[in-house]
Every structure is written in structure tokens, then in C-alpha cells.
Amino acid sequence: MTSVLKIRDLTLGFRKGRQTAQVLHGISMHVNAGEKVALVGESGSGKSVTAQLALGRLQQERGTLTSGEIEVVGHDLIRHPEAMAPERGHRVTMIFQDPTSALNPVFRIGEIFTEVLRSGGRKVTAAEARDRALKALAEVHIPDPARALDSYPFQLSGGMNQRVMIAMALANEPELLLADEPGTALDVTVQAQTLRLMDDLVTEKGTSVLFISHNLSVVREFADRVYVIYRGNIVEHGRTDQLFANPRHPYTRALLSAAPKLIGGGLPDLPEHSDAFRDPLIVHPGCGEPHEVSA
Amino acid sequence: MSPVLRLLLQRLAISVLVLIGVSILIFFIARIVPGDPARIALGPNASQAQIDALREARHLNDPIVVQYGWFIRDLLHGDLGTSLYTKRPVAQDVATYFPATLELVLYAGAMMILLGLPLGRLAARFQRRWPDHVARLLSVIAVCTPAFVWGVILQLTFAYIWPIFPLEGRLSNGIDAPPLITGFYTIDALLNGQISTFFNAVYHLILPATALALSGIGQTARLTRSSMIETYRRPFIGMSRAYGFREDRISRRFAFWPSLIPTLTILGLDFATMLANAFLVERVFVWPGLSRYGVEVIMRKDLDAIVGVVLVIAAMFLITNLVVDLIVSIINPRIRLAERKAKA
Fold this sequence. Notes:
The complex is a heterodimer of chains A (295) and B (344).
Chain A: E1 3-16, E2 19-32, E3 36-40, H1 47-54, E4 64-72, E5 75-76, E6 92-95, H2 99-102, H3 109-118, H4 126-139, H5 145-149, H6 158-171, E7 176-180, H7 188-205, E8 208-213, H8 216-222, E9 225-230, E10 233-239, H9 240-245, H10 250-258, E11 282-283, H11 290-294
Parallel strand pairs in A: 3-8, 3-9, 6-7, 7-8, 10-11
Antiparallel strand pairs in A: 1-2, 1-4, 4-5, 9-10
Helix pairs in contact in A: 3-4, 4-6, 6-7
Chain B: H1 3-32, H2 37-42, H3 48-57, H4 64-76, H5 90-125, H6 130-144, H7 147-161, H8 185-191, H9 195-232, H10 235-242, H11 247-254, H12 256-284, H13 290-299, H14 303-331, H15 333-336, H16 338-343
Membrane topology (chain A): Peripheral membrane protein
GO molecular function, one term (chain A): ATP binding
Domain ABC transporter (chain A): 5-256
């Protein structure tokens, strides 16, 4: 099986003056074609930087130190992050936390959409762009696509904007969709609806998804496999059913018990840090990295 | 009523109130300043009888509030009074001198926009790289040096040591002013098809307009830069990059327009301030403008003329602000469409 995203022993550090802040300590993960994989952890654990690395953006900034391997849709992004430039918005796209702030407030949805379709220097006529945008918006069940295209983001609800964002993310038929805490800024019900919609569409199109989240209940619904990340280290990796049925790493257990329960029980008392959270990586059977399997 | 029109009318009403306030303020301040305008106007050899006659003719012996009443009565008849210095109606003096200043300021304003915005945009795009360092250095130098110093420097360099531009005035000797239509020599010359007069007028405008514009260019560049850097941190720019929008397109369109909204309001004030700053530049370049006239009449305590000049400059401030508000409301869809959203 081919992997659209392959990460091996990836480290990331930010140099500031003479000091280096190490953010990722050698993580390995992969996303196969058509697979939905979740990367779960608390804020600051290194989830979002992983997505930025997968876009090839972070390693081009000054003061960023990387080592290891990261390969996205066949490009070696440690050596040639610039190779991602024509792929962004096409073979790899992204969905964000807050759709309304991710859409430019002084441009109409139609203008932004056209730019998305034309990104990477692709030639698309205005009429063609409008046509494709209308189809994409209809696909995400926006009631009046023509009106949405002529609207500004602040004229639409958050849920509508998230649908627009999903339509933009899928319009160019990407191989990999990076969903960075998608819709976290929305109402829970709206978030659930838009996630369901995204799930249906990616399943239908066979798009691979790297789903970045701190919300375990959402992950459980959505992902095929789960990586749990804690302070720049992957601590547990397994199929979703394995991981939820039998969480073995102390940090995963803590994360699971932190999820609020419907039947009360008060707020769980969790340590901010425990030495046990530093325990070595636990891999559930049948879930190893491809290079480990073949080795 | 469209929201833009309503905004315009609101601002217009406020502007009228402000003008009334300014007129009261400057009317009383001009009269409280020590010195007898009649005595200054008539010179040291005038007899007491002459001075008394002039004071009586100009109602200067009436209580100040009554004088204001006379002023308002004349104003409502479109009469700004008569200058004691030029002996002509103030309205006529303003009409003579004001176009020269306005032409100068408009050219300087155009330079401010056309050079300042791109400079700031480039600095923001190449933040902390050499284009940014160069742009910032130039802006700081431009902002910190007063306009009249720029005037002298430019005059020395480009009119004296290296005489490519004329030293002073609006037109060269021997070239007649074009027939009066707008009072702008460049426009009047074009309207009359006098191409050589047009180029001569532009040629004379370059140095004073540059001197006047430089600090505004620097200020514009700095404002644009910081506003754009702010915009670059917003999530929608992160989205633009994640979707592979070209960095150049982001800089020209997607980051530029949102950044312009906060910048423009301050630019409007900068532009209006140039009207007030113009008098030093006008002095240096012997430019027959309103600001120079204004200084002249203040020195002579020429009451009606002072009030007239201040009112015209205040009106220009208000008009500039009005225009800026209008432009901002056009760029910013939130204002333009405010009402439509409320209905939906």
C-alpha cells in the first residue's frame, strides 16, 4: 500500500539566538492512501507543527531545524520543501479550526474560491472557476451556492463557512487532507454536522486525512488509526478500536479520563505531568510503521 | 437609504457643526490677541482720526459678541469680509491663493500614496530582510526631517548645485498663466491645450511637492508596513499560504486590502496636515499659496482674513476625512453591507 504521508524519526527545533527549543523528538507515522488517521494530543504537543511540516512551509522559515524524513505525495520535504509549492491547495489541502477567520474578510467567497482553483499557477478561466465552485458548494449541501459565492464570509454562519472551507479543500481532489482541529471554534452540533459531511465526502472520494485533534470522542467516530502525541513524542499508536478498548500508555489513559462524561462524576483530577507520561511508545499489534513491518 | 449615503450625510452634518465651532473659536482668538488691526493696517504715520474711522467702519468698537453677529450676517450673504492687508474681499484672496496650495498638496498627496504604499508593502513582504531594512531606514529619515528642511536640501541639490529644476515659483518667467478655470495650472493648461505650459507647471511642482510629501511618504510606508505585518499573522493569510496562493498575490491583494482599512484613516489626517505644513514649503519655494497668505495676515492681525483662511483649511480637513471615510466604507464590505446584513 502506498503512503501519501510518511514521517520517520522526524525532529523539529526552533533556534532562537543560541538556544534551540526542541519541539518534535523523532516521531514516526504514516498515512496510507484512502486512510483516515488521527493525531491526538494536548495543545503544545506538536500536532499543528506536524501539519505545517507536511505542507512544507515550516522548514522554509528561518531558524527551523529539522532532521529525519518527511515524505508527502512523493516529495522529500526535508531536502526539497519548495517542491510542495505547486501541490498546496491541490494534492494537499487543509481545513482549519475557525472557518470564519480562515476566510479573507474583504473578499467574496467566489474570489477566494477562484484563487484556490488557480493556486499553483493553474490556468482556469473565470467562468470555469465559477462553474466548478458552484458544483463544489452544491456537494457540501449549501442551499444557494450562487448566493454563497457572492457573499462575504461575515455574511455566512460559521457552519456555512465550514462547508465552504470543506468545498475548497476538496475542490481540487487532493490526495491528502490535513484537518487541523476542524471546526473546534464552532458550536458542538454544527461541528458534528460538518464533520459528518467531511467524513462522507472523503470516504466517497477516497481522500486520505490526517486529522489533528484533542477531542477523543470526535476521533473515535472518525479515524481508522490513532497516534497519541505527548510533548513531541508519539506515545501510543493503534487502530481506533484497539486504542479505545485497551488504552495502554499512562498518558492515553489520562487523556481518555479527561474527556467529560455525560453522566457526571465531576471534573477529573489530572496531573499536568507525570513521569509515567514519559513511558516508551506502545504500538498495538498490526499497526507498526511500514519500515518496521518490512524490517 | 444605502449605508454609505447615510454615513456620508451623518458626517456632513457633523462637519457643519465643527465648522461653526471652529469659526467661533478662531473669531474670538483672533480678536483677543493684542494689537490694534487698524493701526497695523494704516501704518505708523496714520493719524488718530484715520484709525478711529477705520475702527468704526470695521465695527471694532462694538462688543465682541456683537462683532460675531456682524460676521455671521455677512457670512450668510457669502461675504467673508475684506482684508485690511490686500484691501480686497477675503473670498477673492482665498480664491486666488488657495488653488496654488491645493495643487501643491494634491500632487504631494499623490506622491505619498503612490510611493508610500508600495514601499510599506514591500517592507512587510520582505520583513527583516534587506528591502525591509532599506525601506525602514528611508522612512525614518523621511519622517524625521521637517518639510522645509527637505525644501532647502532639494533646492540646493537639484536647483542650485545641479540645476535641473527651477528654484521657485509656479511658472517660468515669460510663460503666462493659463486662463483661469480651476486655478490648477497643470489642469488649466491641459484644458486649453497648452502642452508646454503644462510641462512647465509640472516642472515647477516637482521639488516643492516632493519636499512636502517626503515625511508623508515615510509615514505611509511605516503605517502600511506595520498594518500588513499585523495582517500577515491573521488566520486567513495562513489559509492563503496553505492553499498555495502566490506570495506576490498575497502581498498585492489578500494582505494588502485588509491592511489598508486601518491605514487609510490615518493617511487622511496626514494628508490634511500637509495643508497646514505647506506654508513653510511655500515660503522656501516662493509659492503664491494660501498658507503663505495665511502667515502674512496673521502677522498683520488681519482679522477677517485670518478667519477666512482658517475656515478654508478646516473645511479641507473635514472634506478629506469625509473622502477617506467614503473610501474606507467602499473597501470594507462590513460597512458597505451593514444594512443588508441587518435585514437578512
